[in-house]
Amino acid sequence: MGIFDEWRSGATQLHWQSSTAANAGAEVSVFTRRCGTPGAPALVCVHGFPTASIDYFALTRELGAEHFASVRPALKVGTLGRRNIAE
Fold this sequence. Notes:
Largest sheet: 4 strands, mixed
Distance between the termini: 39 Å
Number of domains: 1
Shape: elongated
Mean pLDDT: 81
Radius of gyration: 15 Å
Number of strands: 4
Number of helices: 2
Strand content: 25-35%
Order of helices and strands: HEEEHE
Low-confidence stretches: 77-87
Helix content: 10-25%
């Protein structure tokens, strides 16, 4: 199994209904991954555009025995489906 398949296989999706007026109550879904040792000290890995959670693959493997990692995107407030580079 390649690293992308391995990374995806341990992932979950977070779903919620947006409360931002510009999103008109659209459902939001983001990829998230937890890995490592449950109960160990937490390690929160946040990524933003243009990076992706896979950037933390090697780090979570290396620290997984000593930490419990949660990899999440840095969500920004705004309209879904487009980026406002002025924000």
